[in-house]
Amino acid sequence: MHTMLRSLLVATLGVGLFSHAAAFAQSAGCAVSRDASARQVLTCPGGVKVTAEAGASFRLIDRNRDGSPDSLSLRSKAVLVDVNSSQHAGGFQVVTPQAIAAVRGTQWAVDVASGKTSVLVVRGSVGVRRPTGKPVVLSPGEGVDVGSGTEPLVVRRWPAPRAAALLARLGQ
Description:
17% helix; disordered N terminus; signal; Ferric-dicitrate binding protein FerR (Iron transport regulator); Ferrdict_sens_TM
């Protein structure tokens, strides 16, 4: 009975906050593992893989209930998302308090800290926008910092040390 209630809760609400992500992710069909630095890696059906920095606060969401997450809500710290477009239909997005980053198939990192969201594209392209606003499109090596203001988003090629520092936090 407890397992059935948990499955119903997961189907209704998506995957729980990160402190409970392992149990919820497994019941949602995602395999969960940890690396030596306490990062968690969630490998989900439909070609979605999420690497989360130790202590990251997020939840996966399967809006269309097809067994594969299509969205991730990130509240703090960083995640690296890898979406295989040949296996995942319908796109994927990361939603933070400041931004929405959406793709069809790619690899990108999102970091939430100090009232700002930073997005870096590793492979493919990512559209980034505020919850209300005009999107910008990032290509590999490009990033954007999104604060709570309304000024236009500025796409920049990230300096190698900045990109390397973020990716190192995510085991890359």
